[in-house]
Amino acid sequence: MTQDGAEGKQVPRRFRWLKFNPLRDVLPIVAVIVGAFIAIRAASGLSNGGDPTLVYVGAGLVVVAVVVFFVNR
User: Fold this and answer.
1) Count of CB atoms within 10 A of residue 5's CB?
2) Do the domain assignments include residue 3?
3) Is-contact 67 35, C-beta < 8 A?
4) Rounded-to-integer distance, Cα 70 and Cα 33, Å
5) 65: alpha, beta or left? (left if phi > 0; alpha if psi -120 to 50)
6) How many whole angstroms separate alpha carbon 41 and alpha carbon 10?
7) 37 lies in a domain?
8) Which domain covers residue 23, as residue numbers?
């Protein structure tokens, strides 16, 4: 039930907008750049017999960072 008066008109905390936080806003972008760099570097090393695990790690980091970016927005 809602309360009448000034206390009843406040927006619940879970619905308030997040304040600006440089780490939360910048780290997904940094993770995309680092993940792409890791994936490209690992893919170029595959011709020399490198391990394909880092290609998956880099691609996974990019995907997670993109999802986090949109969830934060």
Assistant:
1) 7
2) no
3) no
4) 16
5) alpha
6) 51
7) yes
8) 18-72
Each residue's pLDDT tens digit, 3-18: 555 555 777 877 777 7
Number of domains in the chain: 1
Alpha carbon distance 31, 35 (integer Å): 6
Q: What's the predicted TM-score (pTM) here?
A: 0.69
Spatial contact of 35 and 61, defined as CB atoms under 8 Å apart: yes
- Report the C-alpha gap between 38 and 46 in whole angstroms: 12
Is residue 12 situated within a structural domain? no
Q: Measured in whole angstroms, how far is the alpha carbon of residue 25 from the centre of its chain?
A: 8
Residue 41 lies in a domain: yes
Cα separation values, 21 from 17, 40, 67, Å: 12, 30, 17
